């Protein structure tokens, strides 16, 4: 443990023919992404408070939560359309409701607090959030802007550092990753909010990082083996970087795992999405980004190799 | 491959400095003379309230239009021009009137063009096709007013919050027309919301005594409701402000000695005293309304001129309301109403739970990554682990130096940075392994490993950096904390992996001169 490594993922003479599975990989990915896009439209994402606006009050009632009493007390404050949910312990309740503009939202959240206290005196309010409609649409716009601009800047960077075939196949792969993540969010019902945008951006960053490493090796091998067919060359590059790919995805996975297990309500959705994204991002480097590069670069990248000779 | 003593000393020096900068977070300021910077806990960890408040642009526009209408009247009178039907429209941002005679229209425009403007091109004066003349406020002028109002409001908000005894309130501007108020430890912001939601603009104005005007007020007179509806219906009050509440020097809540009711007593400054005595001298026998935020608190009859500069308002207050009103009068009126558009409150117990969850995850994740590196990369893995520890220390050090705010997502960012940081070590180690397999000598293999891996490391970190800078620019609140820690983490990662862990490997090689590498 202090000298030579005890474990490793694959032997150094490993040669898996990944490109043989290129159609299977692309088709599986396309099907999953299409299904995710379908899910995105129906039933659609569960928008979090940041993007939907409204009120969320999380409270710990003094005794076991009495839903009937809570409902009556809320009705006494003219709040009839609230959803009251249990979560965690029997005395944890989550009250959420949609409201109109900011001023109203701001008053209703106080009424909810009063109502909870009247229903079960001694209740502690753990969290009370109210987001007005104008703010939520603004947050949503900014979140989407951050996502869009990040993708554009990643595209620009890879384009600048590599040839356009690399940049384009990387960004197509990222978009495919992104749609699958959306599908994951719809299926799990995790709320899509600003924290989730952060998770998605981290996944994009990580996934790009993974692709850059493989592409970097492809580029190096393009210079090294000038006569090798592109298909073999890409396979070789993936195999050479396989230990690193698996190693890094493991460490990131291990780092995110405790967050998913112990991170509490705020972070568990974030962390599970991260874990999903790490698996998707790692496999897409091998099964999607590489085949795409092969299709786009067949012929072209070979020609450009003559430039390196000069 | 060679590290000069200077380089060695500076890399170790940076790590030591980092360790030193981390200290304030654990210790209670033992050297008061030293600059003591530490990480602040965000509201999500500490518990507290976050309020995002917006200045009411419409009310600002309305106020400006009102004064614009006043100056228009004065200017026209001074130039001996007549006018009919001056009206203001806050939605459109216009003051319009009809000239006494169509032939005077051009003279009206010329006279009004000369009106002083608060900002360049504040408004335009135009003759309409139907013969009326319209003054229109420009959008830029409204925005400029909003910015100015925010600047004034921040000061007043601070004074009002300080008066409530809240600890460490943080009040900052956001954009053109918003104010962020962060109140650590305040788990029920209702009273503060009420305090900040009240403009507390107090004015003293004469009541129109014409009984006809209680239903249809002429221009220049408004029907204002009583603040206590039990006192009667709306009163016709002149728009002209005789004495302004800003001319107060002091205000306090007290129990009125005669009625035994709660009252707010106040003292005018010299301007206020002068204005008050002038008005009361000229209008004995008339009713004088005390108006707070466009509601009449009371409208007593002036029995004799009041020259002393002292006064008292009794408006059926309870103790809390009298205290709050006095507080607001002392702190000053807000230039426009502030409304809460976003509010987030986190109770102290949830904050404590979050810290525990964050710390536990951080520790567990750190240990697992360390074990992984030890098992999969042996000796070089341990060097990577030393670098990882240094990375954590440096991250905390830089966050302390910036006095940054640590949020729960920020802690997640730290953990993910640690997970990603060893990527650079993995790249270097895998590369060395390949070079050894190709039959290179240990020295050549290490050299090639460092060189070839460096560009990959820079590329992969650059793309991650881009994504998170975007998040920092467009994100708000805790998410910004996440983006900030990751951005800082990428910088510290480059330092610890490209310099520190490499240095450890090179030192080990120089000291032992091994014939084979532990890869």
UniProtKB/TrEMBL annotation, chain A:
InterPro entries: SecD/SecF_arch_bac, SecD/SecF_bac, SecD/SecF_CS, SecD_SecF_C, SecD_SecF_C_bact, SecF_bac. One of its GO terms (cellular component) is plasma membrane. Keywords: Cell membrane, Membrane, Protein transport, Translocation, Transmembrane, Transmembrane helix, Transport. It is a multi-pass membrane protein. GO terms for biological process: intracellular protein transmembrane transport; protein targeting; protein transport by the Sec complex. GO terms for molecular function: protein-transporting ATPase activity. The keyword Methyltransferase does not apply. It is found in: Cell membrane. Forms a complex with SecD. Part of the essential Sec protein translocation apparatus which comprises SecA, SecYEG and auxiliary proteins SecDF-YajC and YidC. Part of the Sec protein translocase complex. Interacts with the SecYEG preprotein conducting channel. SecDF uses the proton motive force (PMF) to complete protein translocation after the ATP-dependent function of SecA. PANTHER family: PROTEIN TRANSLOCASE SUBUNIT SECF, PROTEIN-EXPORT MEMBRANE PROTEIN SEC. This is Protein-export membrane protein SecF. It comes from Acetobacter tropicalis. The lineage of its organism: Bacteria, Pseudomonadati, Pseudomonadota, Alphaproteobacteria, Acetobacterales.
UniProtKB/TrEMBL annotation, chain B:
Residues 150-208 form the Protein translocase subunit SecDF P1 domain. The chain crosses the membrane at residues 357-377, 382-402, 481-504. One of its GO terms (biological process) is intracellular protein transmembrane transport. One of its GO terms (cellular component) is plasma membrane. InterPro entries: Acrflvin-R, SecD, SecD/SecF_arch_bac, SecD/SecF_CS, SecD_1st, SecD_SecF_C, SecD_SecF_C_bact, SecDF_P1_head. Residues 231-336 form the SecDF P1 head subdomain domain. Keywords: Cell membrane, Membrane, Protein transport, Translocation, Transmembrane, Transmembrane helix, Transport. The keyword Cell membrane applies. It is found in: Cell membrane. Residues 340-508 form the Protein export membrane protein SecD/SecF C-terminal domain. HAMAP family: SecD_B. Part of the Sec protein translocase complex. Interacts with the SecYEG preprotein conducting channel. SecDF uses the proton motive force (PMF) to complete protein translocation after the ATP-dependent function of SecA. Forms a complex with SecF. Part of the essential Sec protein translocation apparatus which comprises SecA, SecYEG and auxiliary proteins SecDF-YajC and YidC. This is Protein translocase subunit SecD. It comes from Acetobacter tropicalis. The gene is secD.
